[in-house]
Amino acid sequence: MNGRETKEELPAGVSVEEIVIPVPWGHVAGRWWGPRNKQPLIAIHGWQDNAGTWDNLIPQLPGNTSVLAIDLPGHGLSSHYPSGMLYYVFWDGIVLLRRIVRHFRWEKISLIGHSLGGALSFMYAASYPDEVDRIICIDIASPAVRPPDNMVLATGWSINKVLDYEKLTEDKIPCYEYEEMIDIVVDAYKGSVSRENCEVLMKRGMSPAPSNSKKQGFYFKRDPRLKVSGLAMMSIETALEYASQIRCKVLNIRAIPGQNWERLDYYTKIIDKLKETTDVTYMEVEGTHHVQLNAPENISNIIEDFLEEY
Q1: Which residues partner with 258 through β-bridges?
Q2: Distance of alpha carbon 176 from its chain centroid, rounded?
Q3: Is this structure's pTM higher than 0.85?
Q4: Is 115 assigned a catalytic role?
Q5: Rounded to whole angstroms, how far apart are CA atoms 188 and 192?
């Protein structure tokens, strides 16, 4: 919704439809790719991204692949949480997925997730081991990505920031010219997302300034409270316990150089733990952390083969 939007051009045989799923605080927005009469693979984006993160990958999958790419709460076109609520990103997503499953009355699901979305796929599969067929996790293994002291030291600061963001009134929200906004996004991703693909994400990530704000330009649609994610971290010991519960088929794709994980050993420990109890395909590919957006051709065949095999 950037004011420059034109009719979406899709490859021949590829279809996508915008959908809205009701939730108690508003709605969850999504993009349903492919057949609507077929249960979809649920696609979950990364922290502060949106469903547009899959726009380059899904058209490269077979045309009969059905995928529901959602905007998590506070992201993209989905409703923000009410004032006074916190985002515990690694936990909220499990509840949201359960709501979606119950809404559509699905008995078993398959998930694909990038970064935060991959961690949520991992957590859901561990929480409902008999109700997940397969998960595909891109450049993440679990929510355990930082040592516990990081969360402990950041707790006070995180709570203060949440309370500060609650006071951020509409007239105080910064607005930017289009090119300036894309510059900000490119800089924030630090090379993980090209400028062209930042524009892809911003189709759902920015909007023109409200007409009553007396401002011009564009603002970020995502909820600023999402910036505070430190309260959602998990220790490696807890993550390993969750890993021991997973029974579904797992495809884990790690991008190289990908994300510069503080504790890469946590990643490998989770993969090793999963291999003790289930069938794991672990692949390393060339790409940035946003490989599914920046270089989808590096992973599309891997994902297609995995979906066909299982």
Answers
A1: 288
A2: 25
A3: yes
A4: yes
A5: 9
